[in-house]
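In line with agreed milestones, the collection of sequences with tokenised folds has grown. One record among many is set out beneath this paragraph:
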Amino acid sequence: MSIGVHNIGQGCVTCLDYDEHYILTFPNGYGRQVNVLLGIFVCNALSILTVPWIELGGECSINCSKTGYNASIIFHTKPFYGGKKHRVTAEIFSPNDKKPFCSIEGEWNGVMYAKYTTGENAVFIDTKQMPTIKKKVRKLEDQEDFESRCLWKDVTYNLK
């Protein structure tokens, strides 16, 4: 049993200090449920324990038109038998190059490792060691009508 959300469209992240705009696509999201058999068939009855989890899956890209750098990212879904959850691989390309200068692999919610064409290997990021940073959001009364928090305020209120 699972439910999937297939994201369409793209996002834009702007680095103001460098006047760079990154266009990115998003992975699909899945709410999964694994059924683990605890017993054997007895009079057509079966004991099942469900263990839900969220996972990302699919291909994404990040492109910067100013620099020409781009990345191809694959979020791997867990196979039915064996395998790991939350796996991600990525390749980063210099402008006009067909071969990546850096490959990244690991878990998107854990540690990711980088392998460079120079032969250097390094920890790319360890999300478990990153500090939690409180997000900064403008007050509701300062937002435009179609900004997310203003637009969804009634839904948020009723969900709470």
Summary: Residues 36-47 have pLDDT under 50 and may be disordered. Residues 1 and 33 are 6 Å apart (CA to CA).
